[in-house]
């Protein structure tokens, strides 16, 4: 690939078209990259302990790992 982690890129297709961000991870086996704060899914996590509150976290979609 001609891009590296840390490069600033612009999304040219999809729902996030036109957004600019920094590459955080590269998947060479399927030629995809993860851009910081773009195309992340929100996951609602239940609390594990009684006093601990639940939380909402952003995760990389599982389709990147195929």
Give the proportion of residues in helices.
Answer: under 10%
Helical/strand content category: mainly beta
Distance between the first and last residues' Cα = 18 Å
Form type: elongated
In terms of quaternary structure, the protein is single chain
Beta-strand content = 35-45%
What is the arithmetic mean of pLDDT? 88
Number of strands: 5
The DSSP helix count reads 0
Major β-sheet profile: 3 strands, antiparallel
Low-confidence stretches: none
Rg? 15 Å
Widest sheet: strand ordering: 1-2-3
List strands and helices in order, with pairings:
Layout: E1 8-10, E2 20-27, E3 32-35, E4 41-45, E5 55-59
Antiparallel strand pairs: 1-2, 2-3, 4-5
Task: Report on this structure.
The protein is an all-beta fold. The protein has no helices and five strands. The strands form two sheets. A three-stranded antiparallel beta sheet has the order 1-2-3, with no helix packed on it. A two-stranded antiparallel sheet has the order 4-5. The radius of gyration is 15 Å and the shape is elongated. It starts with 7 loop residues before the first strand and ends in a 7-residue tail after the last strand. 2% of the residues are buried. The model has no long low-confidence stretch (mean pLDDT 88).
């Amino acid at each position: 690939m001609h891009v590296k982690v840390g490069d600033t890129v612009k999304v040219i297709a999809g729902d996030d078209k036109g957004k600019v961000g920094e590459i955080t991870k590269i998947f060479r086996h399927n030629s995809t990259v993860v851009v910081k704060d773009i195309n992340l899914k929100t996951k609602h996590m239940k609390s594990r302990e009684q006093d601990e509150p639940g939380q909402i976290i952003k995760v990389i979609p599982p389709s990147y790992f195929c």
